[in-house]
Amino acid sequence: MKTLITLFFLPFLAFSQTKADFNKLIEDTNEYLTQYSKLRAYGEEYYPISEFGLSKREIKKLLIDADYDATLSKNKDSIQNYHMIFYFQEKITKRINQIVRHQDFQKVNIQELITSDELSIVISDDNKLFNFSMDAKTGGTYRSRISIMHYTDFAPQDSAQLTQFQDFFASDGYNNIYTLPTDEVIKYVMTGYVRGCSYCFQTFVCLVSFKDNQFKEEFSYSVDSRDWNDGVFYDHDTKTINVDYHVDDLTSYCYCGGENDKKEFDYDKFADNETLINCQCKFVFNGLTFELVEESWKKVNYEDRKE
């Protein structure tokens, strides 16, 4: 997926790009998102091409590009589901890259202009760091996403630097981005959630800073758990990170500090639905980074946990 995103980005650097009409870019993006919403990873195998509202020119190019294997129906009036998923992903990604590099981008509220539920737009408090993400529709229980980051102060010198910038961030995107001003530089707390399988849940929090035209990670914590109620959670009002999870086969230890501070447990001994191990950590922002202030573990009754 990272390779796919990189390929999307390379042609759209703004250095020699003619500025497209901003309103047209928004209009196209909304239309492509509407069409993308019709598609499902396990939807119909073939869709009538006429259903996607494409222009004659777009249909002509689509037929040329898709004329291989069994991508098109015998009469060439229908097309395979997966091809249209990738088709609209490329169209949407291209437009987003053109939008964020447009001179009018910082003059508008992009969340008011692009309103489709297919696209998540997360913005930092200072309106500088943006995350655009959408369901990759790959099927399966791992709900992978296509994620695009944009930072208004970042000035890529070439495609390699742009790729490095994108690769720094989580490939599935973020749920929230918070701004933390400090005496040194502006820092950002970024939180995310990934469902890796039917009962595989990952939550994460990281602290990053921007200096010398690049981002640097200063703190991170993630939890993999079988319980969607467990994980790592950030409270921006108190600038506190709370970790609360139960030992299972995905995370068989309690961990708050360094590698030598892991408390390992034999999960099989606690997998009888009667007794579990609850792990907790608390980190507070001290002006520079998140500092561990509390850590604990205890045995808990399974029935108490359910309540």
Structural summary, described in words:
The protein is α+β, with helices and mostly antiparallel strands and 307 residues long. 23% of the residues lie in helices and 35% in strands. The protein is built from seven helices and 15 strands. A hairpin with a 4-residue loop joins strand 10 (231-235) and strand 11 (240-246). Helix 2 packs antiparallel against helix 4 (81-100). The longest helix has 20 residues, at 81-100. Residues 1-8 and 10-18 have low confidence and may be disordered.
* Helical coverage, percent range: 10-25%
Strand order of the largest sheet: 6-7-8-9
Radius of gyration in whole Å, from Cα?
Answer: 23 Å
Tally the beta strands. 15
What's the helix-strand series? HHEHEHHEEEHEEEEEEEEEEH
Distance between the termini: 40 Å
Sheet/helix structural class:
alpha+beta
| Sheet having the most strands | 4 strands, antiparallel
Tally the helices: what do you get?
7
Q: Shape, please?
A: flat
Sheet-strand content, in percent, reads 25-35%
Average pLDDT rating: 87
Low-confidence stretches: 1-8, 10-18
